[in-house]
Design goal:
mainly alpha; two-stranded antiparallel ribbon; 4 strands
Amino acid sequence: MINYQTTTTIVSWVVFIPIIGVGSILITIGLRYLFKIDKKIADNLSRLISLISTLLAFILSLKMWGFFETGMNTLQFVHRFVWIENFNIEYFLGIDGINIALVILTTFITLIACIASVPWWGHVDDRHFSKRMTPGYMILLLILETGMLGTFCALDFFLFYIFWEIMLLPMYFLIGVWGGPRKEYAAIKFFLYTLAGSVLMLLAMIAIYYASEPFILADGRLAHHTFNIPALTASGQSGLFARANPILGFAFAKVVWIALFIGFAIKIPMFPFHTWLPDAHVEAPTPISVILAGILLKTGGYGILRFNFQLLPEATKWAAAAMAVFGMINIVYAAYVCMAQSDLKKLIAYSSVSHMGFVLLGYAAFTPQAISGAVFQMVAHGLISPMLFLIAGVIYDRAHTREIGEFGGLANKMPEYTGLVGLAFMASLGLPGLAGFIGEVLVFLGAFPVYKVFTIISATSVVITAAYYLWTIHRMFLGKFNEKWSALWDVNWRERFTLYPLAALIIFFGFYPMPIFNLISNSLNPLISVIIASGKLP
């Protein structure tokens, strides 16, 4: 059973500081109309509020990291009380080794996305920023950040589900209002796919609630059923859900596991539920693509670890081979699809599908190397994919096209940009010394003894990934310069503020990944032992 003793409000501050920012922006809007303040002044004040809010959330998350005790397999920074008494629902937030790295990643990437949304008055064509950083855009971005942080921090299943749903509407409007020419189609497709997964998750949550054991709530009352995730984890690891009554003639644990897995797999996204992602990425504004790839995809991988693994270890063991197959398909299929792409942003979108396949393959192996590699892969991808989408945005803001074949010889015209693109591409293909290498090689090391054939097939994707990135570099940056782009200019300071921090972290964690492993190891290793020791389902 997971212990939790420390009570503090810092985690709630991290989660809800963006909402305080939303309230401040709404006050600014009200003051503008009340006192007839100039729109430009009010908008600039709103931009400043959003930047300060995301910065404060990031600073507080770093403070949690500084006080996090890495040698303990306990929940830390817990904030817990009974929220809705009649339904035994608690407000329960906390931090452990599974979510601490993802919380810090969320606050950091959201800050980067916020900076990327700010117009640069020195040199960039402002047409593509005219609708960005309006009060409505900023409000949705901050609500989205709270939804993502709450999803990672919630330790009550019902509360987790609320935060999960909070993420849906802001992203829908950010794509549907501020996106590209096919924004409505992409937004609706994203909404429907995610909603379908949410319905399955809701049904699984209800089933687990009624199968749960009595539990003492935060106010001392005995609840006959609970949404408390640590309590559900203890019940699941004792075999309670494996012994529960069947659902429609099928084993309870199998049905619930599949429902949860599909709900989370849609977000990863896993083949064949991946088709919403390329459309969403292509149509979304660059900062929203940064959040979508850097954070939202990780909520699916996190959910599998927190719920499928912790609550249903026997069913996880039963489904491991299928999970490995889907991981292999993600890795190889999406890599081949990348070879056929002519749009830079769509190529990067499919590369995300491929790289998230390593998470599934690593999860399925149940070895410390593979699962640690899978979690590290989520963090590394959370740094690399935002950098990739930012570099796609740099060229689109100038040329208003992402067609790879339209360019050529940009290395001489944009040398700094070319260097940043090269670094991001090399990190994504897994070059040693960069963050992308660590997760992939650990997944291969941990998965090979368990799934030799799947691992060998998946390893071929490394060659394919190198092929499509080198092909892109050759077509865009080498060869004869296309005089059509003689007016292009190199990166500006706003772009440097977003790209260089990502580049620095990609290099740092490529050489020294231990800060991440120190955070996650004490929570993952006991979980692996529980799954390996679990029995077979009937």
